[in-house]
Amino acid sequence: MSAATSFDAWVDRGPFTALDLGIFRILFALSSLLLLPRPEAMSGLPDFLWKPPPGPFRLLDSPPPPAVVAGITVIQVLALVLVLLGVFTTVSSIAAALLFVVADGLGNGYGPIYHYILLAVVPLVLCWAGWGRRLSVDARRRPDDDRPVPQWPLRLLALCIAVAFATAGLAKLRAGWLDLDSQSTRSHFVSSFVVQGNDRFLAPLVSHLDSRPLWELLDWFTVALELLLLVAVVRWTWFVRALPVLVAFHVGVLLVLSIACAANVVAYGAFVRWSRWWPERPLRSPSPADLTAVGVGAAAIALGVNQVHLHAPATELYLKAAFVLGAGAVATVLCLRPRPARSTSG
Amino acid sequence: MTSRRRIALRALFAAVLLSLPLMIVVRESVGEPYPGLYQPAFDGSTMRGDLFGRDEAVVMVRDAAGERHRIAVTDLLDVPELERGYLLSATRSALRDPRRMRTPEAVAYVRERAAELGIDSPVRLRVTWYSTTRGPRERDGAERGVVVQAYSVRLAP
Predict the structure, then answer these.
(1) Most buried residue, A78, A264, A315, A342, by most Cβ within 10 Å?
(2) What interface predicted TM-score (ipTM) does this complex get?
(3) In B, which residues are within 8 Å of A105 by CB distance?
């Protein structure tokens, strides 16, 4: 077998079903609605601070007017509601991804980057896996769609996640994280605890940790985890087993540094076999009125949550923390439950 | 799947994998772009032994009577909707760049903010960056080292 045909077989291999993806699509859309970028929160900043990172947003000399920013948020909510309901899922997923990049890019226009890009990558990639074929309006229009689920988008998403982490791991390698004389994790912790005053969760307890070997071990663990994901992508069994480790890592980062990587844990949900928890049952066909109510309700909740944490940054942290800790709970349950027959081969 | 689609898929996977070295080069040469498939890099350690090292800015405003007033870096921006860490990062980035601080928008902003903080007729802003060290649990009382950058900005109209 040639390398090319081996690659083709590898790309096609995977255990994910249309129902797995349909359930994840709903969870993803709901999560994204709650984690909307909020560039309007930046409107209190003076314009001279506007300095977007290199890229297309540098073309803007100043932040757009608040009405434009609010308009983008509203359209983004509409696109995510269509993804949630599975209406023209491919088109609405692409629209949601592009609108996310615009809103997130405006939010990053004052310098610091939030690294929520996976919330754009997921819909952009998984729409090609047919994540709208179950539990959707599209499924009602094409009830006999029994085509096999293409697995390559999930491989591609796994590769994108691994490449993103590799950029971080390689940067840390170059910055000397493996140098035994310097403890980088401790340095960032002290900066967070002492300078920024982050004393939430376990930070006060960790501030008394003076063991250099332990801090150094955390440096090595971080770099190894971020780089080894590229190896784990080779086999589904490795990648799926690496995800709970990643989630545990994010829980640790949250509890120690008060950094909640909520976008990441939402993206990892793409690799959970949700249908084992929620087997397909005949559902009462929702009426157009039911669907409208769900859509309007989801949009109202999203905009409501957005407005609440616009005015209270601590609320935003606790909302994101809930996602990370929830993912930790899901990962723990998945690791502890009896292992079914092998299904996530190569 | 048709052979053309197969070839396109191979190219797509190869492009994602090959984007890794390209993204590293771009971040090293011009800074991290957006959008990009990046996760947070985090700099290396600034610990020297058990001491935490960091450059810190001292911001002074002189008024028309010649009196000097110190403004805490955390007081320069007052945006309660944003978290303290974000504001601190944005403020430090601006204070590091004298050209940005000398723009008419920045001068007007500092004048207005100084007035809000009770400083009448501000005429000059002085920013001095020092290297500092402190213990890993000391929130106050960082020990000042050498001056690493200093500049003034005329605030009077």
Answers:
(1) A264
(2) 0.94
(3) 34-35
pTM here is 0.95
CB contact under 8 A, B34 and A108: yes
Same domain, B105 and B137: yes
Q: What are phi and psi of B54, to 5 degrees?
A: -165, 145
Strand, helix or coil for residue A76: helix
The domain total for chain B is 2
Q: Residue A143, Cα to own-chain centre: how many angstroms?
A: 30
Q: Could you say which DSSP state residue A47 is in?
A: G
Interval A59-90: pLDDT, tens: 999 999 989 999 999 999 999 999 999 999 99
Locate the domains of chain A by residue range. 15-150+284-310, 157-280+312-346
Judged by a CB distance cut-off of 8 A, whether residue A234 touches chain B is no
Determine the angle formed by the axes of helices B3-30 and A3-12, rounding to 10 degrees.
90
Kind and range of the H or E run holding A272 = none
Based on the domain organization, do B2 and B52 belong to the same domain?
A: no
Nearest to B17 among A115, A163, A208 (CB): A163
Collapse the DSSP code of A157 into the 3-class scheme (helix H, G, I; strand E, B; otherwise coil) and give the result.
Answer: helix
